[in-house]
C-alpha cells in the first residue's frame, strides 16, 4: 500500500540562539594583529569570560610587506590560532579588508561576519562607529608595555626582547617564515603604502 504523502519537515532552527538573544552571546574583537601578542591574548581571555563565542576580525587584511603591516592576512590567522590554543574552539577568525570610508567601515565589517551582540574595543572612533550601528560597545583589558608597534620596532632594532611579548609558538613561527628579516628590510627601506590605517 502506498504511504500517504507527508510534507517536508524543515529543521527547527533556534533563531534566538543563532541571532542574538540572551541564550547566545557573541562578541566582536577587531585588530590588525601585526603580530598577535600576549596583550591580545589577555584581552581575548577576559572577553571570553563574558561571551559564548568571539569573532576576531583581522583588519587591513589586504595589506602586507609594509612597516605597519608586515605580515599577510593568512600569516596573521595562523599566528592567532597559535596564540589562542584551546580558546580557538570558541572563536571565529575572519580577515576583512579596509575601506576608505570610516562611516561605512562598520557595516562593511558586519557584512563579513556572523551576527554579534557586543563589540569590544579601546579605540574611541571604533566605539563611536559601532554604537551608531546600534551595537553595545565595551572596553577590554589593556596590558601596558606590549604593542604591535613596539614588537616590530624591537625586531627592526635587533632586540630579542620582542620574544617575551608573544607566545613561544608565535616567536618560532615568525622566525620560521623569516619574519625578522622581513621587518628589518621593511624598516630599513621605509616601505609604506598610501592609505594604510594604523588602527
Describe the structure.
- There is one protein chain.
- With 199 residues, the chain is α/β, with parallel strands linked by helices.
- The protein has a single domain, classed as Rossmann fold (3-Layer(aba) Sandwich), CATH 3.40.50.
- Helix content is 36%, strand content 12%.
- The chain is built from 8 helices and 5 strands; from the N terminus they run αβαβαβαβαβααα.
- A 5-stranded parallel β-sheet has the order 3-2-1-4-5, with helices on both faces.
- β2 (53-58), α3 (73-84) and β3 (91-95) form a beta-alpha-beta unit.
- Mean pLDDT is 90; it is low at 2-17.
Which helices and strands appear, and what pairs or packs with what?
Blueprint: H1 15-18, E1 26-31, H2 38-48, E2 53-58, H3 73-84, E3 91-95, H4 105-112, E4 118-120, H5 124-131, E5 136-138, H6 148-156, H7 168-176, H8 179-188
Parallel strand pairs: 1-2, 1-4, 2-3, 4-5
Rounded mean pLDDT is 90
CATH superfamily: HUPs
Which bin fits the share of residues in helices?
Answer: 25-40%
What's the overall geometry?
Answer: globular
Summary tags:
199 residues; 36% helix; alpha/beta; 12% strand
Amino acid at each position: 500500500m502506498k504511504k500517504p504523502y507527508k510534507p517536508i519537515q524543515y529543521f527547527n532552527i533556534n533563531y534566538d540562539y543563532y541571532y542574538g538573544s540572551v541564550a547566545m552571546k557573541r562578541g566582536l574583537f577587531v585588530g590588525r594583529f601585526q603580530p598577535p601578542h600576549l596583550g591580545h591574548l589577555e584581552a581575548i581571555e577576559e572577553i571570553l569570560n563574558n561571551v559564548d563565542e568571539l569573532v576576531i576580525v583581522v583588519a587591513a587584511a589586504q595589506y602586507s610587506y609594509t612597516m605597519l603591516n608586515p605580515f599577510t592576512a593568512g600569516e596573521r590567522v595562523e599566528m592567532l590560532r597559535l596564540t589562542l590554543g584551546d580558546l580557538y574552539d570558541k572563536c571565529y577568525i575572519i580577515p576583512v579588508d579596509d575601506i576608505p570610508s570610516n562611516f561605512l567601515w562598520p557595516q562593511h565589517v558586519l557584512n563579513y561576519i556572523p551576527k554579534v551582540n557586543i563589540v569590544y574595543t579601546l579605540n574611541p572612533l571604533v566605539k563611536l562607529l559601532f554604537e551608531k550601528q546600534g551595537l553595545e560597545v565595551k572596553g577590554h583589558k589593556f596590558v601596558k608595555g606590549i604593542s604591535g608597534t613596539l614588537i616590530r620596532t624591537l625586531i627592526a632594532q635587533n632586540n630579542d626582547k620582542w620574544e617575551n611579548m608573544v607566545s613561544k609558538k608565535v616567536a618560532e613561527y615568525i622566525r620560521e617564515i623569516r619574519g625578522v628579516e622581513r621587518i628589518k628590510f621593511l624598516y630599513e627601506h621605509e616601505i609604506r603604502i598610501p592609505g594604510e590605517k594604523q588602527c
